[in-house]
């Protein structure tokens, strides 16, 4: 019988990483330049492993390959059975990330043999006046955009937005974006690792090398429509007794909500889909038919489709993501 799988993350150490994954969540990061914790990951570039129960030590991929629909649910579809659809990360940007864009499914399949990447961000913590790039200023054409890259004046065309704790951003494939310095972000995305870098702030690494840019592909996929004033997601808040459920995003690829729990929240699960949970505040327990699993802020779980309804008990905030059931 499957059970809520608590996962060990995979860490990545890009040049812009920091140490807040340890400071905020007590994570055992490999260095003070740890930028990404792939919390719920089943990708060739990183797979989480189970840290509890009889599947301890197995990778999420091994579990999914073995249990298939029992784990993923009967609405997963052929593609989803072949490739796990989602990836959940925490990103600590002690310096800014490159200005980048991701392709859609069609382009990514043709050029990278990968899924496209639509993503969303939930700001977990922000230094005062932290900002990010979300799209470009109104009236920017591909010609202007290309010229500005060549002339080194791209920053003038970018749409900078201030971001604070609790802000939510939805980034469809094609949107030019960059996470700014001082932001700690939960990211829910399609399971893809394809990024086209447009501009890297003229930065070099400790060996004096700059990172590769992918201008042509970026220009192919960039959608420069006007997004100003529509940057932040306004969630739909539903009060459930003492708890609050905030529906943030519902798109073709994923649905995401934040549940703020005072004592207990019952989550329905009937074999159709799996749930991905990440605790971002507080602590508690996940109770299911056969037992319980405890958690603290920063812990992430894969909830298999076949475990039935479960409840989250505690005083905590949880990010819950799942694939839409059509
Ligand atoms: Zn991105």
Describe the structure.
A hairpin with a 4-residue loop joins strand 17 and strand 18 (255-261). This protein has two domains: 5-221, Jelly Rolls; 236-322, Jelly Rolls. The protein is α+β, with helices and mostly antiparallel strands. The strands form five sheets. Strands 1, 6, 16, 17, 18, 19, 20, 21, 22 and 23 form a ten-stranded antiparallel beta sheet that branches. 45% of the residues are buried. The chain has helices at residues 20-25, 60-67, 69-72, 77-82, 105-112, 142-151, 215-221; strands spanning 5-8, 10-12, 36-40, 42-43, 46-47, 49-50, 86-93, 99-101, 119-126, 131-136, 158-162, 168-171, 177-178, 183-190, 196-199, 236-240, 243-250, 255-261, 264-267, 275-288, 291-296, 300-303, 310-322. Helix content is 15%, strand content 39%. Zinc ion binds next to loops.
Give the key terms:
about 325 residues; alpha+beta; Jelly Rolls; six-stranded antiparallel sheet; 7 helices; about 40% strand; binds zinc ion
CATH class of the largest domain: Mainly Beta
User: Distance between termini?
Assistant: 27 Å
> Which overall shape is indicated by the principal axes computed on the Cα atoms?
globular
Total DSSP E strands: 23
The residue fraction in helices comes out at 10-25%
Number of domains: 2
CATH topology description of the largest domain: Jelly Rolls
What's the tally of helices?
7
The class by helix and strand makeup works out as alpha+beta
